[in-house]
Design a protein that fits this description.
192 residues; alpha/beta; CBS-domain; 3-stranded mixed β-sheet; two-stranded parallel sheet; 15% strand; elongated
């Protein structure tokens, strides 16, 4: 995405530690600890891509020239309160939420039949990528008071929308799986 097209780059939601399992300097892991840590890495780090199916189902996009009537119709018929606005190349250039739409219409700043999505969209918005850790994304969403965050590819093209509820459900399910693994390990059954 170039600055000429939108004037503002979307903000990445999280910065990724390239080696999250790195040990403290001077510490060593024995064979059993290493095996346990390896097993934990196979379970623990849920990525945004782990809920790809539901993020794709929540993605709704419009072009910058779409009328607000179209945006309103899309928002009223989906389970999400966010529409991603894209330029002619499919690059995310803004977002419109139900709140933004109601605010513009309520204050008389826009007309549903003549105002274009590009005129009311928020140009500074937060995004994440499929390779971001889901717990980190959810923590930042909570910190910033966000309910939905667009998922974009390396070219800032939208490929989904993370909903906080969906992310929390995925982490809860993962936590239940980890609890079962821990219970089996403690009971002497081992990892299954």
């Amino acid at each position: 995405m170039t600055e000429e097209s939108t004037g503002v780059e979307p903000k990445r939601l999280v910065e990724i530690d390239p080696n999250p399992m790195s040990a403290e300097p001077g510490s060593t892991l024995d064979h059993q600890q290493l095996a346990t840590a390896t097993e934990a890495t196979n379970v623990a780090p849920a990525l945004v891509s782990s809920i790809e199916e539901v993020t794709r189902s929540r993605l709704v996009t419009v072009g910058v020239d779409a009328l607000l009537a179209e945006v309103a119709a899309l928002l009223s018929s989906t389970q999400i309160s966010l529409v991603v606005v894209c330029d002619g190349l499919g690059v995310a250039v803004g977002v419109i939420t139900e709140t933004i739409l109601v605010r513009h219409l309520g204050y008389g700043k826009a007309d549903v039949f003549t105002t274009r999505a590009g005129d009311v969209m928020v140009r500074e918005f937060t995004v994440c990528q499929p390779t971001d850790f889901l717990p980190d994304v959810l923590a930042k969403m909570h910190e910033r008071g966000l309910i939905h965050v667009p998922v974009v590819d390396d070219n800032n093209r939208p490929i989904g929308v993370v909903n906080a509820r969906d992310g929390l459900r995925a982490l809860l399910a993962q936590g239940n799986f980890e609890e079962a693994l821990l219970r089996n390990y403690v009971m002497g059954i081992g990892y299954q």
